[in-house]
Specification:
With 429 residues, the protein is an alpha/beta fold. The chain has two domains: 233 residues, Glycogen Phosphorylase B (Rossmann fold), CATH 3.40.50; 181 residues, 3-Layer(aba) Sandwich (Rossmann fold). 46% of the residues lie in helices and 15% in strands. It contains 17 helices and 13 strands. It has a seven-stranded mixed beta sheet with strand order 3-2-1-4-5-6-7. It has a six-stranded parallel beta sheet with strand order 10-9-8-11-12-13, sandwiched between helices. It is globular. The two termini are 26 Å apart. The C terminus is likely disordered.
Length: 429
């Protein structure tokens, strides 16, 4: 098939391909693109690539500007500039109207001859979906979160006209989609309940891991440990972002308990975000700063080494009022890496991790329980080894990107052939 992958930010995708630091959602989309290409499908990337308003290209290293007609005229550009000056004068935010019209024009010229368009949902965007509807081209939407609601959770709500615009474009895309691929059963419930998406058009595909890259590696483990200067000390590792949905505060409290029993233990925190400085202050206040290493943001290519070096990997999430619809990429990468796992038993995590078998589950926000689980795994080499081996086996058997892309490919074939929706048996939990 000739498949279009439409993304909100193609420069981020290029950064992933170059091995640079990039957002996890683009790491996921890169795995998907590589998997589909490996299965002999032709992939075209579509989306904005500043300063180009839209590109339609196979090679992101040499992006080709998408063909446009009316949206490339001087009159269109002058009209857009005039409206933006008026909006600024009136205090009206940028609503992405003209940017979407440019995408629509480009898509109408570029999409004919393609078998299917697959889009990672983005705020304020509906140009690709509108083109698919006009052209009658099958359209699939990838959804890993409700972006509007996530802004509410982060205490950065989208307000006023921007919120209205965000809802309008999201509703259009969800309605236009022949199939919505989401990452968890919890998110499917949210999409059907809050957005009215018919359940038979939503497929659940949890994230996965590259089990050929994320794997037990004793040589790599030794090299990373030497570089960190920790020798044979027990090493607990967190990889992720320092935002409200990752409960670093509870992990620091738990690690303080670990140090009272295992004073040579070390905690490595890999990532960055709004709460990093606060967490560094908390480590200092707790008197554990000398045993905690804040590595900062690293490229995804460096993550396998840190996980290979870990004795225990932690996947911490806080108490949340709503359904937890996450499908953490790092959970599957921790499983594949052969580290024992301590994870918060919320949402999909509680479905993926079998307590006492592929890891230890703890209640959200409970530092004492997390501390006991960490101490147990650090002290019990047999249990640690068993959980690590079983998690690795589960990742290889059920949660590899190869398996994910094979499942996604079949769904795409069904959508392109207008055989979707099928029975709910197409879902993969």
């Amino acid at each position: 098939m000739k498949i279009v992958i439409s993304l909100p930010d193609l420069q981020q995708m290029l950064m992933v391909k170059r091995g640079a630091i990039a957002d996890a959602t683009y790491i996921i989309q890169n795995y998907i693109a590589q998997g589909l290409e490996a299965n002999a499908h032709s992939i075209m990337f579509f989306g904005p690539f500043p300063p180009l308003p839209a590109v339609f290209t196979r090679d992101l290293e040499a992006p080709i500007a998408a063909t446009r007609t009316w949206s490339g005229t001087a009159g269109f550009n002058a009209t857009g500039a005039m409206f933006w000056r008026c909006q600024r004068a009136l205090g009206v935010p940028y609503l992405n109207v003209f940017a979407n019209l440019r995408l629509l024009d480009a898509a109408l010229r570029c999409f004919p001859g393609c078998d299917l368009v697959y889009e990672r949902n983005g705020l304020y965007r509906n140009g690709a979906a509108r083109a698919c509807k006009r052209l009658g081209i099958p359209y699939m939407l990838y959804c890993e979160a409700d972006d509007i609601f996530e802004h509410d959770v982060m205490a950065k709500p989208i307000k006023g006209l921007l919120r209205r615009r965000a809802r309008q474009t999201a509703e259009y895309n969800l309605t236009a989609a022949d199939c919505v691929v989401c990452v968890s059963e919890q998110l499917r419930r949210h999409l059907t309940r809050e957005w009215g998406v018919p359940a038979d058009r939503v497929v659940v595909l949890p994230n996965a891991a590259d089990t050929n890259v994320f794997k037990p590696d004793l040589d790599l483990r030794d090299r990373v440990r030497r570089a960190l200067g920790i020798g044979d000390s027990p090493l607990i590792v967190f990889v992720g972002s320092f935002y409200v949905w990752h409960d670093i505060a509870t992990l620091l409290g738990a690690f303080a308990d670990v140090l009272r029993v295992h004073p040579d233990a070390r905690l490595l925190l890999v990532g960055d975000g709004a709460q990093r400085a606060t967490m560094m202050d908390q480590a200092d206040t707790r008197g554990i700063a000398k045993a905690v290493m804040f590595k900062g943001m690293v490229a995804h290519t460096e993550v396998p080494g840190f996980l290979a070096a870990a004795d225990v990997a932690v996947v911490p999430y806080p108490v949340l009022e709503q359904d937890v619809w996450l499908s953490p990429l790092k959970l599957f990468e921790c499983m594949a890496s052969g580290a024992a796992i301590v994870a918060t038993g919320v949402g999909q995590i509680a479905e993926i991790i079998t307590d006492g078998e592929t890891g230890l589950l703890v209640p959200p926000g409970d530092s004492a329980s997390m501390g006991r689980a960490l101490i147990k795994l650090v002290a019990d080499e047999s249990l640690r080894s068993h959980c690590a081996q079983m998690a690795r086996r589960r990742a290889v058997e059920r949660h590899s990107w190869d398996q994910y892309c094979t499942r996604l490919e079949q769904i795409m074939l069904d959508v392109a052939a207008r055989k979707f929706p099928r029975s709910m048996g197409a879902d993969v939990n």
